Amino acid sequence: MTAYLTPKEIHILGVQRTGQHAIASWIIGHFDKVCYKNGFISKNKSNTNRGLTPPWWLFDKENRSDLSWKVSLDHDFPVGQDAIILGTEYLNSYRDFNIALEWEETQKKEMAARQKMDEFAKNRTYVLVLRSPWNHLASVLKWQDRWYLKKKERFISCWLMTAREFKGVTNILPEPKVFLNFDRWFSDINYRKSLSKKLGIAFTDHGLGKVMKVGTGSRVGSSFDRIKYDGEAQKMKVLERWKSYVDNKVEFVNVLGMNKELVTLAEEIFGPFPFEL
Fold this sequence. Notes:
Blueprint: E1 4-15, H1 20-28, E2 33-40, E3 56-60, E4 70-72, E5 83-90, H2 94-114, E6 119-130, H3 133-142, H4 147-150, H5 152-167, E7 177-181, H6 182-187, H7 189-199, H8 249-257, H9 260-270
Parallel strand pairs: 1-5, 1-6, 2-5, 6-7
Antiparallel strand pairs: 2-3, 3-4
């Protein structure tokens, strides 16, 4: 019989400020005992803050109804979890994206072997998160640490490579994969129910209101609200972030309108732009 470190792995991917941590909090709320690990795509494999290294965030619904966590600094993956939720944020090309995934797969195999297991996870699903470019860019501009997405070419490139995969123009992410429209996820409970079904987990919105305290100092939580709405995340106006920048033609409106492919894919996935380009 094949032995696994964890029965289920759900791997969330997306460009930073896309809303991955909100998605992670919601998915975490589906499990009684779950481990969460957030990472970044980086070629610097010596950086211990990247990849599958401690700290591990451990959530126990029975003892922590508010979805708070305890931290494990053990070198090995903590056994006895119902699932592991991985978060990978990327900000360059799919070439770097694939390098990071290959590196993570190597780490998983090494960890499983070290802990006398055959495989890391019995079942794995990738979740690719895409946010409307008008709300995504607004959050990037508001964020205090946005040097790599500040250049319009970088933002457009990152958003487009995600949207192309989302629409099936590319087929780079391994199967099985679930495409998650952040704007619709935030506003539509029936859509969230369909996503839970695709992920093979019994639906709940237990983690929907949580604002994950990821980051440091003033960068923790939402670009706009930080952790002000922790426990009441649905009160945040995440679908109206664009209103703070719509009058900025140079840095906002013109950037979104300068690429025809971006405009076309955005309207196919999210509907018409809420303002005139």
